[in-house]
Write a structure and sequence with these properties.
Elements: E1 2-9, E2 12-19, E3 29-38, E4 56-57, E5 61-69, E6 81-85, E7 93-97, E8 102-103, H1 110-114, H2 117-129, E9 138-142, H3 147-159, E10 162-167, H4 170-177, E11 183-186, H5 193-199, E12 205-210, H6 217-222, E13 224-232, H7 246-251, E14 255-258, H8 266-271, H9 273-279, H10 281-285, E15 293-298, H11 302-310, E16 317-321
Parallel strand pairs: 9-10, 9-12, 10-11, 12-13, 13-14, 15-16
Antiparallel strand pairs: 1-2, 1-4, 3-5, 3-7, 3-16, 5-6, 6-8
Length: 324
Amino acid sequence: MRSYALRVDGERAVLERVDAPAPVAGPGQVLLKMHAAGLNRGEFIPGGLIKGGAAKPAGIEGAGEIVALGAGVSGLRVGQRVMGRCAGAFAEYAVMDAREAMPIPAGLSMEAAAAVPLTFLVVHDMLVLQGRLQRDEWLLITGVSSGVGVASLQAAKALGARVIGTSGSPDKLARLEDLGLDVSIATRAPDFAARVMEATGNRGADLVVNTVGGSVFAECLRTMAFEGRLATVGYVDRTLTAEIDLQALHAKRLTLFGVSNKMRSGDQRAAGVPAFVADWLPAIADGRIQPFVDRVFPFDELAAAQARMESNAHVGKIVLKIAE
């Protein structure tokens, strides 16, 4: 089958087109004919989701049609359209843990469905399970035009929160105002705390989503409200250390947490799926939350899709189309 593998070459993640045997669904798995797959920044950052060594199957989320059920799988059927996290998603066929296979709403295209699983599961973990975001609270998102940033904006508005976003591109911020972005701050520098405090009436942000990394971490801390929460979900700046104001952490009763699947077991990853399906799948089905796809690339143009992501030209998710 047609597929891609990913290997680390120094400081670069390199994609390789390979012909590989189709996988077989093992116990508790389903085999999918893949129709589309989403790209994620972390899978292209050496030291992030990928390490050195031999090339590995590329792609970590997608949407497709079930063509075979492994032993012990129930509640799913051959021919069903599903989306979910899965290794080796940039291929004609891939296997998925049946516990992570989510039904695709009838009105959602395969391309839009491929933009849902990893990003929105992470956002649900970040905003609901750990972040406890409430109606009328303030959410700050650094790097709001990223896939996780846009999904966080959409989900927060569905929850009734108010959203502040930072980006180095005024044009990207302008596009996101149509999705409900309340306050736009055009900057890539750690210089936004005063503007966040002004926008919130000196209250600060109840929840901060840091998609950028260590270069803005201390500034994020300065924006936080009493009993505020700070989620670290990425480090595209590749800055992995930052100062922490312990006095502010202590006096303001702040909560700092990370959002990652990197060290979670299969059981732990699957545990959050039922809550996501109950909380947000209806909102995706009825259009209250709409996956924001920046561009869909043909299967043969995955390198171009990777280049667009690494150039920071996109707003929202980049998707690879695999089959009709």
